[in-house]
Amino acid sequence: MKKFLKNRVYTSLLFVALIFTACQDEYEEVSTEGETETIVSNSATAKLIENTSAQDGSFDNIVDGVSCFAIEFPYTVNVNGLEVTVDSREDLQTIEEILDSVEIDEDILDIIFPITISAADYEEKVINSKEELRALAADCKEGGDDDDIECIDFVYPIDMFTFNINREQTSKVTINSDKELRRFFKSLEGNNLVGIDFPISLKLYDGSETTINSMSELVMTIENAREMCDEDDDNDHNDDDFTKERLDSYLVMCPWLIHEVNRQGVNSTDQYFEYAMNFKEDGTVKAFDREGNAIEGTWSTRLGENRVLLKLEFDSLVDFTLEWFIYEIEHGKIKLYAGEGDRIIMKKHCVEKDPNTLREVLRECSWVIKKVFVDDEEIKRLLGYEFNFEAEGVVTLSNGDVTSTGSWEITMNEQERLVMAITMGDEPGVSFEWPLSDLRDDRLKFEIPGTDYELILQRVCDNNSDDGDVLEIRNIMMGGAWAIASYTIGEEDLTQNYAGYSLDFDVENALGVYEGIATEPFMNGVWRVLRNYEQELRIYLNLGNHELFGELTKPWKLLSLDDNRIEFKCYDAEGILTKIVLEKEQ
User: Fold this and answer.
1) pLDDT, tens digit, for every residue of 502-519?
2) What letter does residue 319 receive in the DSSP assignment?
3) Residue 12's pLDDT is what?
4) What are the per-10-residue average pLDDT scores of the chain (586 residues)?
5) Are 11 and 36 within 8 A, CB to CB?
6) How far is residue 111's CA from residue 118's CA, in Å, rounded to a whole number?
7) Could you tell me which of 501, 502, 541, 538 has the C-alpha nearest to residue 525?
8) What letter would DSSP give residue 108?
């Protein structure tokens, strides 16, 4: 039964203090003689609630570099010379992907003004210049010292009440968001009485929820949670909330290959490229050059101001001997930085040495081609084709209609790396000895470092029949013919080129392109819906190298989908955004 009774008049409101420690605020509440507890709208308890509902501006630090305000969507930025329109939080990840796409560079990100920012209390202000933005940023507290509480959140909707001086209810308001909650408190007079319709739920930083039944329980829950997580309120958007402990375990997990070295402004990458670094739990590290010669040293980590630092010491490897702070740690990559002109990039190199392990992984499920480059040429016509590695060295490659058969084996090359050798006479695009460079549960990558040979395979077990999202998308796409309602590359609108054509997504991954009212497709292709190793949904379209429809041959990121409309997007190697909108033909 809810604790608020709508028509009851509360005649006894006795305020008591919740006493914590001498350094903490006091939080007042009404005694439980009445059915509803109330607080004064400018009390310490009310302030705690406001801080929990404050806007966290750290999510867009990649753009504005500060956590006390956020830029309102949409806005436009120039990233390394590429113009990107930011419509949602998802586009911030796109910006990071562009910045990370070229590692040996000086990243440049410029905001196109004017922009509108919103503060912790959701008040908005128009900013017209970089100088104006920097002036506001100078007043921000970084490093988690701001007032907002990010480790716990309210679960909406929440019903709240106000009372007049006579202790009579004056209103009931349903709150549906943090923004509405902050504005609710802002609209009140300083001594208004406010009540909450308990029970309510709060969600912790780890995704778990807890039920709250009283004002005192609410206060204690928020107080206990406020220091339980890293709020990530520093200007380094790219640290991905790692800790010293995580870095220590990450370093010793696998060998690391050097991919870039800059010291004192001098690029020494060619000298150290593909050096291997093996970190041991006892604090020793060995660096191996390309000939296999070992250089011994030591390593240690410590916490600095809002960051983790890695100290490397070698007698003979002076370019590495320095204390570095960690700029980024994600997706098998660590970036070290020690000031202007000093940077190292290392990539994880966990390569399986047992041929039987790779054989078992390959035979476990089907494997779909995500990317294949041969001699600096992308073989687009093979995108979405499916390998099946069978017993007795038999391998098949199929697009759902045509199947090629060849042979495969796992061997070791002269550098003691595992190699997947494929021979398929009628498909030279995959007939090669592919050295394994990355083995994961659901993705395999083969490449020859320093060359333009690369093969990436995505695992597909039982055609993703256990993934409800994948099945739903497939069913919608197979629900009829689809017209290309919009097709844009950057600022260029190419929709008219596809007028009069339609796409038909059929069973067995068959994709047909129809012109006008024709009953037979004038060309065929392949389509697939997969969830990749990063748990993102991807739509693979393959119409080969056709002069018009070949532009659609790529893995697309699903933006939105319903029974009558589908929207995809992707970025090319230069970071140019391509969008396509399909609408079902009636």
Assistant:
1) 999 998 889 999 999 889
2) T
3) 30
4) 31 30 37 61 89 87 85 90 85 77 61 93 91 86 65 92 84 93 86 90 84 92 78 49 77 85 89 87 88 86 80 93 84 80 83 77 91 85 92 91 92 76 89 83 76 86 86 93 94 93 92 92 92 79 90 89 91 80 91
5) no
6) 16
7) 541
8) -
Distance, CA of 146 to CA of 69 (rounded, Å): 11
**Alpha-carbon distance 437 to 77, whole Å?**
35
* Share of the chain residues as helix, strand and coil, in percent rounded to the nearest 5: 20, 40, 40
Q: How far is CA 287 from CA 246, 270, 275, 317, in A?
A: 22, 16, 7, 9
Q: Quick one: CA torsion of 248, 227, 218, 68, rounded to 10 degrees? A: -110
CB 80 within 8 A of CB 105: yes
Closest CA to 73 of 84, 81, 82, 256: 84
pLDDT at 376: 76
Report how far residue 39's alpha carbon sits from residue 225's, in angstroms, rounded to the nearest whole number: 21
CA separation, residue 233 to residues 61, 143, 144, 146, 358 (Å): 9, 5, 5, 8, 42
Q: What is the predicted pLDDT for the residue at 107?
A: 58
User: 377-410 burial by CB neighbour count: b if 16+ within 10 A, else e?
Assistant: ebbbbbbbbbbbbeeeeebbbbbbeeeeebebeb
Q: State in Å, rounded, how far the first CA of the chain is from the last one.
A: 50
What CA dihedral angle connects 116, 118, 119 and 124, to 10 degrees? Answer: 80
pLDDT for res 151: 85
**What whole-number distance in Å separates Cα of residue 306 and Cα of residue 416?**
41
Predicted pLDDT at 351? 62
Torsion angle of the four alpha carbons 532, 533, 534, 540, in this order, in degrees rounded to the nearest 10: -20
Q: 309 has which bridge partners?
A: 302, 325
Let me know how long the chain is.
586
Return the pLDDT at 11: 29
How far is 307 from 33, CA to CA, in rounded Å? Answer: 50
* pLDDT at residue 28, rounded to an integer: 41
Place of tokens 């392109």: 513
Residue 125, pLDDT score: 92
Nearest to 55 by CA among 148, 181, 117: 148
Label the pairing between strands 523-531 and 510-515: antiparallel
The tokens describing 560, both together, are 């939105």
Contacts 24+ apart (CB under 8 A), 502-506: 502/585, 503/582, 505/474, 505/477, 505/478, 506/478
